[in-house]
């Protein structure tokens, strides 16, 4: 097949006509897939040594949540370095990042693969990948024709990125040199709630206001704090973290404000507190609702006057610190109950943010599952980790009372279970791998907003027993070999097995 001038003109018009539309990236990739007649295609944005999917067609929806690090994906690294059309042989030894990620074809490998790097000037801004299940699927296209497609796509893509940058600063054109080190926090999610949260983060990050971040446990409040700091003028200075819930009352004041030598028994030297450490930067106070009323009063003074006193010192020190605070409590209710100071609440909540629970984020659960699958795949050295269609359905129907943190742990445990069930480096997560951990196999009824929460300790112990039994079975009841398979010290495995009743 050869492209006529009319066909190329039509492609150019189609690509440019959709760049101002809300689904501009999806329109672009759908057009290209139709023209090039491939089984799967993806438009990837390049950023800090990784490719981030912006639009896909013919691939599992969880691919949108995956982040493809170059060092973990040699094909994508080859595309990033090539500067021209890359055709991979059907029998290439390089693993394809999309193997098993075409719906309904989880056990089949991609056979035909072409990569088109996309440039804006000399800067790599992304890539277009074309995949087919037939080895000679793209042989009719010449390199020159594919270069034209790449040039047209790169122009439309760069324009779309610039438009998106104006609308949403979270999508940036990659104008930095290729192969730099990643240094930012990304929040995965395309739902309405997450899109709104990202916009609010952009607005408040550019200011110097204190921020109160609310949300249920496990929703990712610390990530929000990191994103605010990274988007602020203080980003070159420290972001200091302090968990107020983990602070014993006896040392809390010292942790916050520091102490001088001899201030109390055990104070053998001067010590800086978190406020001093965060000077010119940001202090993130997690679980702020756990602070005692006495410490709340001292924290309020710092926010009002910008000075601190070390424990045992009469002198004041000036500090320039932006305070971000997080809580899973309703601090307005805490104020009414007398457990939180109203004046401190108003100082902290100049710009409140609420992180939505996972059950309200719709398809975000699939993107996050894909993200965690890819993370675990790299960590465990697996060739691929795919989600079956039934696993997709289960993920969407469970209410996730533990939110993103519960989902992350569920995916990691499911991969361990799947690998124990069928050893190898090609993992397909089925619904039962996830359901074994407490997620219901049956859909949540529409009238239910939250699924019943299992007893966490009992569920954890049941899971540990299952994994230990499976490891012993796979390793001929050899405890040392089972410990190696579970990546645990053999003595610790014996102790754990005794406590769980697996071993007399």
Write the layout of secondary structure elements.
Layout: H1 5-17, H2 24-36, E1 40-47, E2 50-57, E3 68-69, H3 74-82, E4 86-88, E5 112-120, E6 123-132, H4 143-167, H5 192-205, E7 211-214, H6 221-230, E8 239-243, H7 249-257, H8 274-277, E9 282-286, H9 293-305, E10 307-308, E11 317-318, E12 322-327, H10 331-336, H11 342-348, E13 351-354, H12 364-380, E14 384-387, H13 389-397, H14 403-421, E15 426-429, H15 431-435, H16 456-474, H17 479-486, H18 490-500
Parallel strand pairs: 7-12, 7-13, 8-9, 9-12, 14-15
Antiparallel strand pairs: 1-2, 1-6, 2-3, 4-5, 5-6, 10-11
Helix pairs in contact: 1-2, 1-4, 5-6, 12-14, 14-16, 16-17
Count every helix, treating DSSP H or I runs of 4 or more residues as helices. 18
* Biggest sheet: strand arrangement: 3-2-1-6-5-4
Mean pLDDT figure:
84
Task: Describe the sheet with the most strands.
Answer: 6 strands, antiparallel
Gyration radius over CA: 26 Å
**CATH homologous superfamily label of the largest domain:** GAF domain
Strand content: 15-25%
Overall CATH architecture of the largest domain: 2-Layer Sandwich
Taking the alpha carbons of the first and last residues, their distance comes to: 70 Å
Q: What percent of the residues sit in helical stretches (DSSP H or I)?
A: 40-55%
């Amino acid at each position: 097949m050869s492209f006529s001038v009319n066909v190329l003109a039509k492609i150019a018009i189609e690509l440019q006509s959709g760049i101002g539309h809300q689904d501009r990236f999806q329109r672009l990739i759908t057009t290209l897939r139709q023209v090039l007649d491939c089984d799967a295609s993806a438009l990837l944005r390049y950023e800090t040594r990784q490719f981030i999917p912006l639009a896909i067609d013919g691939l599992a929806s969880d691919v949108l949540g995956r982040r493809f690090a170059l060092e973990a994906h040699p094909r994508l690294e080859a595309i990033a370095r090539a500067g021209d059309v890359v055709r991979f042989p059907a029998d290439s030894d390089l693993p394809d990042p999309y193997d098993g990620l075409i719906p309904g074809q989880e056990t089949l490998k991609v056979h035909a693969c072409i990569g088109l790097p996309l440039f804006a000037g000399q800067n790599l801004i992304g890539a277009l990948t074309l995949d087919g299940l037939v080895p000679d699927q793209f042989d009719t296209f010449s390199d020159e024709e594919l270069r034209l497609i790449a040039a047209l796509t790169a122009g439309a893509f760069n324009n779309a990125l610039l438009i998106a940058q104006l609308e949403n600063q979270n999508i940036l054109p990659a104008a930095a040199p290729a192969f730099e080190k990643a240094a930012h926090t990304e929040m995965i999610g395309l739902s309405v709630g997450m899109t709104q949260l990202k916009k609010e983060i952009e607005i408040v990050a550019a200011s110097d206001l204190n921020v109160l971040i609310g949300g249920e446990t496990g929703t990712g409040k610390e990530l929000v704090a990191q994103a605010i700091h990274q988007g602020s003028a203080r980003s070159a200075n420290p972001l200091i973290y302090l968990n107020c819930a983990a602070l014993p009352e006896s040392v809390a004041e010292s942790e916050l404000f520091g102490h001088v030598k001899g201030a109390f028994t055990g104070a053998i030297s001067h010590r800086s507190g978190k406020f001093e450490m965060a000077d010119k930067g940001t202090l993130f106070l997690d679980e702020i609702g756990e602070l005692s009323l006495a410490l709340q009063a001292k924290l309020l003074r710092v926010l009002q006057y910008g000075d601190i006193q070390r424990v045992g010192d009469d002198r004041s020190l000036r500090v320039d610190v932006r305070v971000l605070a997080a809580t899973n409590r309703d601090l307005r209710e805490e104020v009414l109950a007398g457990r939180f100071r109203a004046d401190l609440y108003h100082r902290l909540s100049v710009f409140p943010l609420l992180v939505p629970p996972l059950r309200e984020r719709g398809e975000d659960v699939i993107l996050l599952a894909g993200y965690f699958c890819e993370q675990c795949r790299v960590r465990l050295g697996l060739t691929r980790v795919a989600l079956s269609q039934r696993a997709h359905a289960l993920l969407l129907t469970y209410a996730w009372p533990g939110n993103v943190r519960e989902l992350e742990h569920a995916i990691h445990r499911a991969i361990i279970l799947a690998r124990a069930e069928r050893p190898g480096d090609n993992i397909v997560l089925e619904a039962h791998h996830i359901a074994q951990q407490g997620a219901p196999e049956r859909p949540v009824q529409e009238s239910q907003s939250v699924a019943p929460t299992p007893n966490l300790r009992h569920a954890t112990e049941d899971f540990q027993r299952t994994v230990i039994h499976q490891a012993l079975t796979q390793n001929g009841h050899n405890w040392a070999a089972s410990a190696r398979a579970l990546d645990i010290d053999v003595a610790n495995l014996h102790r754990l097995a005794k406590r769980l009743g697996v071993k007399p």
